[in-house]
Amino acid sequence: MSTPKPKKTLLPLPIGALLRFALYDIRQRIYAGVVAAGFDDLQPAHVTLFRWPGPDGRRPSEVAVDARLSKQTVNDLLRDLERLGYLERHPDPTDARARIIHLSSRGRRLHEVAVGVHAQIEDEWSTVVGKRRYQELREALGQLVSGAES
């Protein structure tokens, strides 16, 4: 799939649309990089669970909140990933009803590839707009996100 391109408009695009296009580009490129690295048994939804901070050492319910997916959907994806050898789920020592996700060596490699592709994208974007402007963008987005959490 290619990144959707904004329709030409006389008005500047809203910031939400620009952020959505950028996020879509990142997600597509990470998935393509993961597949190119040999992890071709996954769908984009599986890779979604490896977004920051990743699933390792966490409960499925925490991953569901971060991924903005239902617990049922996340558990279905985790079952797939477990069957494919990317992770294991073990009982949580603090709550026997809960599970903790532990990445296998294959899952850790997948996570490393995804993080590496993301770093390449950031390097590329920094080159396109200039290091100073890119750092200012990161700082501004950080401020906006911090302000939204309070």
Care to describe what's here?
The protein has 150 residues and is mainly α. The chain has a domain at 41-126: Arc Repressor Mutant, subunit A (Orthogonal Bundle). Helices cover 61% and strands 10% of the residues. The protein has 6 helices and 2 strands; from the N terminus they run H-H-H-H-E-E-H-H. The protein has helices spanning 15-36, 44-48, 60-67, 71-83, 105-129, 131-149; strands at residues 87-92, 95-103. The chain has a two-stranded antiparallel ribbon. Helix 1 (15-36) packs across helix 5 (105-129), helix 3 packs across helix 4 (71-83) and helix 5 (105-129) packs across helix 6 (131-149). The longest helix has 25 residues, at 105-129. The mean pLDDT is 92.
Question: How confident is the prediction overall: mean pLDDT?
Answer: 92
At the first level of CATH, the class of one domain is Mainly Alpha
CATH superfamily of one domain: Winged helix-like DNA-binding domain superfamily/Winged helix DNA-binding domain
CATH topology label of one domain: Arc Repressor Mutant, subunit A
Instruction: Walk across the major sheet and give the strand order.
Output: 1-2
Features:
mainly alpha, Arc Repressor Mutant, subunit A, two-stranded antiparallel ribbon, 2 strands
